[in-house]
Amino acid sequence: MKKSTFLGSAVSVLLLFSAISYSRTYIQQQNPKSNPVFQAPAQTSTDTVASKEAASVAASTERPREVATSLTSVEEKAVAGETYTATAYSLRGRTATGVAPATGMIAADPRVLPLGSRVRIEAGSYSGEYVVADTGGAVKGHRIDIWTPTSRDAMRFGRRAVKLTVLELGGKRRKSATTRPRTVVASPASSAASPQQ
Q1: Interacting residues of 132 by C-beta distance below 8 A, sequence separation 6+
Q2: Are 142 and 112 in contact (CB under 8 A)?
Q3: pTM, rounded to two decimals
Q4: Which of 61, 72, 98, 107 could pair covalently with 136 via S-S, beta carbons 3.0-4.6 A apart?
Q5: What are phi and psi of 147, to 5 degrees?
Q6: Beta strands 82-89; 118-122: pairing state
Q7: Rounded to whole angstroms, how far apart are CA atoms 118 and 132?
Q8: Can you tell me the distance from the alpha carbon of 144 to that of 93, in angstroms, rounded to the nearest whole number?
Q9: Where are the domains of the chain?
Q10: Is the pLDDT of residue 166 over 80?
Q11: Is there a contact between 146 and 123 (Cβ–Cβ < 8 Å)?
Q12: pLDDT per residue over 54-86, tens digit each?
């Protein structure tokens, strides 16, 4: 009796795993669009690496001011036209920036798109310029939430792949480290020594 129960369980487990494996293969064959989405960022990252290498080679021969402008142009190319997963929300209250939500605001991961960033989104009738004014618990990585006035609009929007272009980074990333002015504070020992001379 124990032997037949064990064999029956083993056969059931094998059938279950084969059904799961078959369903995964079947779903992947139905949805071939997901593969090109993952190949596009790989091509842009190789272009970005090549651009950064060219900028570093040029940096050795150019003046520092010209290097700063070439580095910012490389950064702009790196963030242009990426694919994000977009959903919509219609909550009330205050956003992470402290203002009431309004049309033209989105929620994003602040590590990817800092608060205050201006972006352009291509998403059908929701296309336009938006400001990153909120964050969210489920908004991580390359995911955004577009604010809509009603929950019906949010449900109608659903989940989509959208093209997002960064127009201006906000927050701490606004200024590049190469263009930030340096301030030098004189130490008390050197300031005391200079009046005596």
Answers
A1: 105, 106, 107, 108, 110, 113, 114, 115, 116, 117, 118, 119, 170
A2: yes
A3: 0.48
A4: 107
A5: -75, 130
A6: unpaired
A7: 7
A8: 19
A9: 34-78, 81-174
A10: yes
A11: yes
A12: 444 444 444 444 444 444 444 444 456 889 999
> Residue 37 is which amino acid?
V
Query: Which residue is it, tokens 């929300």?
Result: 89
For residue 103, the one-letter residue type is T
- CATH code of the region 81-174: 2.40.40.10
Tokens of 4: 């037949």
Structure tokens at 105: 């605001």
